[in-house]
Design goal:
The chain is α+β, with helices and mostly antiparallel strands and 205 residues long. The chain has one domain: Chorismate lyase, CATH 3.40.1410. 23% of the residues lie in helices and 32% in strands. The protein has seven helices and nine strands, in the order βααβααβββααββαββ. Strands 1, 2, 3, 4, 5, 6, 7, 8 and 9 form a nine-stranded antiparallel β-sheet that branches. Strand 8 and strand 9 form a beta hairpin. The longest helix is centred in the N-terminal third of the chain and has 9 residues. It is globular and about 40 Å long. The two termini are 27 Å apart.
């Protein structure tokens, strides 16, 4: 597997924004990986230019709900430390963090973001706002105690994720996102996982 070590602040700076506020922050050990080196089904769920909310909804076959671990306002940005879960069975589907650039959204969308009850992809798609996903890097990360609790893992293990950017039609950044998936066992579903991707209300890359 081709990997390159990279500082956690460079790759996972969004998580650092929340970890640095903890009395005893857990370690973050991560490395960049090539897309083709990500195993299935994680590769199929990460290596695409679609939003993760609808991608996970298609994979699990049920709506995706938001659980906010922490949030903060930083000038015009709203940061959120999150877990996405299946709405019916409450299975952890993603761990991560997001920085939303509030001026890039209209007032109604801003209010829905700040309410903290709806995943970002669902807000953008539901309001039919034009955007595109621009994954910038893929990585593997060794889970820590906080991630283990959030994803209900019995023991630490290597996980896969991506750094993603959501941009508007003129290239203006709407949000930056860290998206980390559970291990393959946590992604198992009764039906085949390779259902077609949803169409973002977005511009295809």
């Amino acid at each position: 597997m081709a990997t390159s070590a990279i500082s956690c602040r460079t790759l996972l700076g969004l998580l650092d924004e929340f970890y640095e506020d903890l009395a005893d922050p857990p370690p973050l050990e991560a490395a960049v990986v090539d897309a083709e080196d990500i195993p299935q089904p994680q590769q199929r769920l990460l290596v695409h230019a679609h939003d993760m909310t609808s991608t996970l909804q298609h994979h699990f076959g049920e709506p995706i709900a938001l659980r906010v671990l922490d949030c903060k306002l930083d000038h015009d940005c709203y940061l959120r430390h999150i877990v996405l879960e299946t709405a019916g069975t409450r299975r952890p589907a993603e761990y991560g963090a997001i920085r939303v650039h509030l001026p890039s959204l209209d007032e109604a969308a801003q209010a829905e973001v700040l309410e903290g009850r709806t995943p970002m992809g669902k807000i953008l798609n539901g309001r039919r706002l034009l955007y595109r996903c621009c994954p910038g890097a893929f990585f593997r990360l060794f889970s820590n105690a906080l991630i283990d609790r959030s994803l209900r893992l019995e023991a630490p293990e290597w996980l896969y994720g991506r750094c993603n950017c959501l941009a508007g039609p003129q290239g203006r950044t709407i949000a930056e996102v860290i998206e980390i998936l559970p291990p393959a066992a946590g992604l198992a579903v009764g039906a085949p996982a390779g259902t077609k991707q949803s169409e973002n209300v977005s511009e295809d890359l």
